[in-house]
Amino acid sequence: METGTDSKFNTIIAIVISILTIFSALLGWQMGNVTGDAEGEYAAAQRAELNTQKIQSINALTVDENHRSFLNYKRNYDEYLLVSQQLEQARSADAVDESLIVTLETKQEGLRALYISNLQLFPNIYITQDGTYDTSTQLGQLYARAARDMDLNSQRHLNLAVALDAQVQRMQYALVLLAVSLFFFAVISTVEALKPVVLWGFTALGAVFAVAGLVIGVLNWS
């Protein structure tokens, strides 16, 4: 090769090395940012899981208390119906026992006050048509209400964290490819007595690794 050609070739190699070095440094900086984002998502997943466990415990206690209030209401209401039936029978009897009627009326009023007070201690919208308490529906609605106010979706954060980890790994592959390409270009720029076959072979290999590293790095930048 002529001296002028060698000089231009060495200048091009030097520029390529500078570009690849700068890009590798920027890619390493961006990889650190993505790694930080992944760690943030893992932390968010842990917080969401703790929120979920907290909400589930609180909801379970709330529903259990409401269910117990419902059972008290149902027991008092069923007894109220029984006393009401006994009162009707006492009033329609051939020999009316006034003292029994007064006793039953007093008991009826007391039971009415009890079941009405019990009815106010729980949301009666969860009483089913067959006279049971729908705890599963209440639990689901309480959870949905809590999910509007706080983060309970840990799986979403985990999925994103895993995706970010995979992105970091691909960026690492890009840095390795760039490092290999820099090795070939460094040999070309520092070793003067290279045979043409070795020179162009190293140049081709350096270019291939450089392009691969640049493409993978750019595609996984954001």
Would you give an account of this structure?
With 222 residues, this protein is mainly alpha-helical. The protein has one domain (3-219). It has helices spanning 3-91, 98-119, 135-149, 154-190, 196-219. The protein is rod-shaped, with a radius of gyration of 40 Å.
For the residues shown, what is the average pLDDT?
Answer: 92
The share of residues in helices is over 70%
In the predicted model, the low-confidence regions spanning at least 5 consecutive residues are none
β-sheet strand percentage:
under 5%
Tell me the count of domains.
1
Question: What separation lies between the terminal Cα atoms?
Answer: 43 Å
Estimated structural class: mainly alpha
Count of helix runs: 5
- H and E order: HHHHH
Brief overview, please?
Helices cover 84% and strands 0% of the residues. By secondary structure, the chain is an all-alpha fold.
Question: Which descriptors apply to this entry?
Answer:
mainly alpha; 84% helix
List the SSEs and their pairings:
Elements: H1 3-91, H2 98-119, H3 135-149, H4 154-190, H5 196-219
Helix pairs in contact: 1-2, 1-3, 1-4, 4-5
